[in-house]
């Protein structure tokens, strides 16, 4: 059915749903009244009122209108054809061009009865529209993947390069740039592309004759190289101004921050500059402050381990450590734990560097080494503020470790992080810092080690087999045969930008201290501590947790090997 057919039949969604028996006449009248109040489309209104679920609504539209219902999750797009429709139009009308169909185009629509949208597409593309019905969530995800801003970034970089080549151009004017200036538009587009790609960091790196713009997506850097190398200095200058940094200082590293609104999201941007051979390198960490929700269920922790971790957080005193390298999700786990503990009956103080996310009802303190406001100094002051729970962003030295452990002995629950590879070595790391073994043994309740591994893209997933050496190693870790098992890998597609991966999942190792481990700590016996830990019935090392995900087809052999590469052999196979 084409737009012309629908126009002639004057089909109305409400009548269609009632005729199909999906809603009653009374429900239709209620939905129409609610629609007048909210201004939403009728389809969205009946969904919000709970009269029908999205799947039944879309299938009904497909059957009644005799148009296809297309699942976009595994759809193979023609990028050039899809992008022939301007992004603004696609997002405004919630539509996406799918394929050529006869003399027209098959267009996915969340509302295939929107005749105005169909007319606009036909006007812009000069082709007859054949509508198909699609899920809104899948459509928005596809638009994010397909409408990258790389060409726009390249165009703006060229425009800025031309401006910088003017002999009388003064870089200091960048501080007065209006919203139409090329440098402002280029930065805004860089941020929009990063948000669209769910990047955690943006790197701007000047090199010989080029500037590299890199985004960290799912823990891996993706690069765009621009030959307009002069834009690097303009971008750095503008970012320094926005961050409140000294624009005249180019010899020393500087750190700053600013807030920016991008695609209806409030971003807290942490800026780090560093002098390099061809200018200054800038790295920006993007922290989305828009309704950030932290829940322990969202960490991906296995259910049995999650229940044990929850019980540990409910203890009135003692220290719980979360360990792992930078970028392994430690802060997210701690914030999720705090969110669960947060209540009017408890006073919570955090000591952080920096404060990454704002938590209601929590007293958050940012350390500042320039004025000697150190972790240890703030922690001492925090303990005089009558807290129930204290979070220390990171234990970096003996003094902070000792104050935190003594606080854990005197009726406080203390949460903190440590940069160690696994749970087994964390307790001994505190002793190596110079903390008395008896203090660690008495105050430390548990250690949670974690990593983030990439998920195989479901759209391009295919079978994979390890080589003989890998298979022998995986079987030793698994404790059984895996010869006939089919592992998974991603082949690369438009949805994962040819990486083979989409998203990440956490792998965990939770170690609760018991009497044999405590006795080994008191003796300062690392070997005895590790042996006692491995005797625990529910202890499972990080590598085994990662392998569980590979066996389940969630991640790849490659990701399991990455986790194990950071661990000693005796820490991999317990």
UniProtKB/TrEMBL annotation:
Family listed: Belongs to the GSP E family.
Protein known as: Type II/IV secretion system protein
Domain Bacterial type II secretion system protein E: 383-397
Species classification: Bacteria, Pseudomonadati, Pseudomonadota, Gammaproteobacteria, Pseudomonadales
Gene3D superfamilies, sorted: 3.30.450.90, P-loop containing nucleotide triphosphate hydrolases, Type II secretion system, protein E, N-terminal domain
Molecular function in Gene Ontology: ATP binding; ATP hydrolysis activity
InterPro entries listed in its UniProt record: AAA+_ATPase (IPR003593), P-loop_NTPase (IPR027417), T2SS/T4SS_dom (IPR001482), T2SS_E_N_sf (IPR037257), T2SS_GspE_N (IPR007831)
Species whose genome carries this gene: Stutzerimonas xanthomarina
Keywords: ATP-binding, Nucleotide-binding
Name of a matching Pfam family: T2SSE
Keyword Nucleotide-binding: yes
CDD domains (alphabetical): PulE-GspE-like
GO CC, any one term: plasma membrane
């Amino acid at each position: 059915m084409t737009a012309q057919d629908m126009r002639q039949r004057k089909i109305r969604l409400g009548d269609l749903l009632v005729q199909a028996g999906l809603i009653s006449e009374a429900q239709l009248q209620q939905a129409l009244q609610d629609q007048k109040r909210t201004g939403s489309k009728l389809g969205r209104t009946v969904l919000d009122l709970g009269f029908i679920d999205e799947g039944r609504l879309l299938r009904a539209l497909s059957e009644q209108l005799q148009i296809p219902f297309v699942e976009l999750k595994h759809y193979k797009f023609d990028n050039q054809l899809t992008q022939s429709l301007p992004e603004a139009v696609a997002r405004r009308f919630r539509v996406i061009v799918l394929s050529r169909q006869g003399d027209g185009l098959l267009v996915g629509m969340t509302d295939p009865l929107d005749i105005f949208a169909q007319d606009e597409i036909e006007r812009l593309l000069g082709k007859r529209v054949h509508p198909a019905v699609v899920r809104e969530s899948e459509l928005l995800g596809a638009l994010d993947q397909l409408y990258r801003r790389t060409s726009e970034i390249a165009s703006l970089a060229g425009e800025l390069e031309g401006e910088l080549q003017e002999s009388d151009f003064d870089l200091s004017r960048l501080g007065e740039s209006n919203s139409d200036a090329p440098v402002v538009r280029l930065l805004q587009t860089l941020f929009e592309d990063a948000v669209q790609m769910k990047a955690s960091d943006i790197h701007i790196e000047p090199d010989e004759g080029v500037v590299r713009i890199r985004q960290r997506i799912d823990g891996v850097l993706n690069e765009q190289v621009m030959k307009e190398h002069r834009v690097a200095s303009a971008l750095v200058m503008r970012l320094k101004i926005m961050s409140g940094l000294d624009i005249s200082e180019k010899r020393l590293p500087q750190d700053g921050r600013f807030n920016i609104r991008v695609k209806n999201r409030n971003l807290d941007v942490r800026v780090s500059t560093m002098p390099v051979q061809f200018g200054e390198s800038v790295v920006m960490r993007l922290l989305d402050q828009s309704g950030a929700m932290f829940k322990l269920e969202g960490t991906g922790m296995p259910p049995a381990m999650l229940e044990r971790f929850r019980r540990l957080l409910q203890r009135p005193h003692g220290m719980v450590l979360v360990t792992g390298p930078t970028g392994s999700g430690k802060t997210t786990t701690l914030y999720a734990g705090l969110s669960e503990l947060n209540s009017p009956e408890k006073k919570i103080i955090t000591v952080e560097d920096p404060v990454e996310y704002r938590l209601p009802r929590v007293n958050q303190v940012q350390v500042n080494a320039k004025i000697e406001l150190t972790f240890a100094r703030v922690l001492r002051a925090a303990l005089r503020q009558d807290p129930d729970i204290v979070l220390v962003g990171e234990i970096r030295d003996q003094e902070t470790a000792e104050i935190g452990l003594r606080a854990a002995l005197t009726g406080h629950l203390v949460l903190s992080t440590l940069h160690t590879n696994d749970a087994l070595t964390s307790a001994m790391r505190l002793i190596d810092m110079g903390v008395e073994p008896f203090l660690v043994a008495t105050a430390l309740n548990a250690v949670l080690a974690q990593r983030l591994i990439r998920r195989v893209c479901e759209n391009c997933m295919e079978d994979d087999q390890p080589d003989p050496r890998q298979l022998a190693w995986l079987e030793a870790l698994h404790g059984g045969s895996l010869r006939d098992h089919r592992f998974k890998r991603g082949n690369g597609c438009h949805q994962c930008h040819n990486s083979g991966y989409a998203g990440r999942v956490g792998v965990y190792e939770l170690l609760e201290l018991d009497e044999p481990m405590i006795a080994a700590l008191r003796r300062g016996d690392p070997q005895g501590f590790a042996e006692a830990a491995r005797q625990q019935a529910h202890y499972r090392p990080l590598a085994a947790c990662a392998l569980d995900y590979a066996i389940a087809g969630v991640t790849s052999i490659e990701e399991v090997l990455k986790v194990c590469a950071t661990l000693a052999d005796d820490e991999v196979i317990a």
